[in-house]
Amino acid sequence: MTTSLTFPCPHCGGMNRVPHERIQEHPRCGHCQNTLITGQPTDLTQANFARQIRGDLPLLVDVWAAWCGPCQQFAPTFQQAAERLKGICRLAKLDSEAESALAGELRIRSIPTLILFNNGQEAARLSGALPLAQLLDWLSQHGVRP
Ligand code: ZN
């Protein structure tokens, strides 16, 4: 039996259904034809947030700000994680200054904060930066395994 994943396009937000075995084959969006699995973090805004957290390919969000030193140090780790987790977990960044209303709705008290979403629901949250190996460990405790 074929199982598939349903998740939004990082470019247009349109929902796509991709069979498991095709995830690693560079699937394209059925709506805008762009690459669905980019290995790059998507930027979240109030406008695309509700759509991007949907779907059963989990979404890991890094809530950050330009003035935050630990956030900047963590950025390359997050980038590496995006490449490692290609097709397993989507990654996104939320600028808590530019999107302060959204950060408020998410009750962000410190940055960086990592939030894992699955099917539109918050599945896990972690405050503070951490090395790649520990980040992958934390994710695997929540069912996201490379
Ligand atoms: Zn699209």
Task: Provide a quick synopsis of the model.
The protein has four helices and seven strands; from the N terminus they run E-E-E-H-E-H-E-H-E-E-H. By secondary structure, the chain is an alpha/beta fold.
Secondary-structure map with pairings?
Elements: E1 4-8, E2 15-19, E3 42-43, H1 46-52, E4 59-64, H2 69-84, E5 90-95, H3 100-105, E6 113-118, E7 121-127, H4 132-141
Parallel strand pairs: 3-5, 4-5
Antiparallel strand pairs: 1-2, 4-6, 6-7
The protein binds zinc ion.
Zinc ion is lined by residues 9, 11-12, 14, 29, 31-32, 34.
Mind explaining what this structure looks like?
With 146 residues, the chain is of the alpha/beta class. Helix content is 27%, strand content 25%. Strands 3-5-4-6-7 form a five-stranded mixed sheet, with helices on one face. It has a two-stranded antiparallel ribbon with strand order 1-2. Strand 6 and strand 7 form a beta hairpin. The longest helix has 16 residues. The two termini are 23 Å apart. 32% of the residues are buried. The mean pLDDT is 96.
